[in-house]
Design brief:
Strand 7 and strand 8 form a beta hairpin. This protein has a single domain, classed as Electron Transport, Fmn-binding Protein, Chain A (Pnp Oxidase, Chain A). It is built from 3 helices and 12 strands; from the N terminus they run H-E-E-E-E-E-H-E-H-E-E-E-E-E-E. By secondary structure, the protein is mostly beta strands. The chain is globular and about 50 Å long. The strands form 3 sheets. The protein has a 7-stranded antiparallel β-sheet. Strands 1-11-12 form a 3-stranded antiparallel β-sheet, with no helix packed on it. It has a two-stranded antiparallel ribbon with strand order 7-8.
Length: about 160
């Protein structure tokens, strides 16, 4: 059987993932965010999470230089925010007016929850960087909205 990256992508697309915006600050304090669905918890003791950022990402050096980031978990009403940060828009500060208490990293308003992390380790692997973040704090929203999910190459369960 001839198995290639297209086949791999189709199979991985059958696994539903949540959608997040991962954020940090630039050297001049300007907010920067990117849509990420490669996100998971790693450990409870210590509290660690993992996010994967593509090597092609123009803002990748910001995450490595600042050594902190926040993860905002989007709800199904926030598909437009996910789409915005998934493109190569030059202004990566839109929707990033809130700041986390622990790191000052930008947070998406009305998200389901957010975590603030310090960069613990970065592993280069394939065409991505695997960032391990030590969780410093976070907050769970009291909203009862459903999560924004990505499945089969598109958004699943959103109202858009």
């Amino acid at each position: 059987m001839n198995f290639n990256s297209t086949d791999f992508r189709k199979i991985m697309g059958s696994f539903a993932t949540g959608v997040t915006i991962v954020t940090t600050l630039g050297s001049k304090g300007n907010p920067y965010g990117v849509t990420v669905n490669s996100f998971t918890s790693v450990s409870l003791e210590p509290m660690l999470v993992l996010v994967c950022l593509g090597n092609h990402l123009t803002g990748l050096p910001l995450f490595l230089e600042q050594k902190f980031f926040a993860i905002s978990i989007l709800n199904q009403e926030q598909q437009h925010i996910s789409e915005y940060f998934a493109t190569s828009v030059p202004d990566r500060s839109k929707y990033l007016e809130l700041r986390g208490e622990m790191t000052g990293a930008p947070i998406i308003r009305d998200c389901l929850g957010h975590l603030e992390c310090s960069l613990s380790t970065c592993y280069p692997e394939g065409d991505h960087q695997i960032l391990i973040g030590k969780v410093l704090g976070g907050e769970l929203s009291s909203a009862t909205t459903r999560p924004l999910l990505y499945f089969g190459g598109g958004y699943f369960g959103s109202k858009s």
